[in-house]
Design goal:
The complex is a heterodimer of chains A (109) and B (114).
Chain A (H helix, E strand, L loop, with lengths): L3 E3 L4 E4 L4 E7 L6 E7 L6 E6 L3 E5 L2 E6 L4 E6 L8 E9 L2 E4 L3 E6 L1
Chain B lengths: L3 E4 L2 E4 L4 E8 L5 E7 L6 E7 L2 E5 L6 E7 L2 E7 L7 E8 L9 E2 L3 E5 L1
Parallel strand pairs in B: 2-11
Antiparallel strand pairs in B: 1-3, 3-8, 4-5, 4-9, 5-6, 7-8, 9-10, 9-11
Classes of the chains: A mainly beta (109), B mainly beta (114).
Chain lengths: 109, 114
Amino acid sequence: QKEVEQNSGPLSVPEGAIASLNCTYSDRGSQSFFWYRQYSGKSPELIMFIYSNGDKEDGRFTAQLNKASQYVSLLIRDSQPSDSATYLCAVIKNNDMRFGAGTRLTVKP
Amino acid sequence: DTEVTQTPKHLVMGMTNKKSLKCEQHMGHRAMYWYKQKAKKPPELMFVYSYEKLSINESVPSRFSPECPNSSLLNLHLHALQPEDSALYLCASSQETRSYQPQHFGDGTRLSIL
């Protein structure tokens, strides 16, 4: 079982729709959760981080964490073509960060 | 542009060469990291420095040698690399190596081994 699992996609949504990206993790002791966006050939860019159960909103982005289900998600509202990228879920336990394989998102105009 | 600066952006070297990758941050962060990323794969942790001391070495071959001269600088010395070492090398930093502190990445060095 992989430590951090994501659907590889590609996930395709029309412009203006809500994109929903999902991530599960295997270690119940995981402490903090991050979403990074990575454009092709570029470095990962921090989008959101969440530590407690529930929702955290920042502009068009909402991160959701459910520790009982070991599940973290990222919602992107009003998706734009510029949101087309690979989204990496990352989980930290004991200062060690592990990434999921990433979900490739395409937003079609 | 990111606040973590990596040089060079691209590097081509032969298997017998010695070269170094450099990383610099001026955010006052005390934790710095090296990652390796192959195409269409997630970043893989190589080394972690905390307060200028090596705290994690993820069983990286000795042909990769990290160095942290001061709290703002991180180097990765390369020697006798193999073609499979061709990848994007990412440097990251965080305030400290605490589980709740996000890491911020540099733009990376794209390394090609001939």
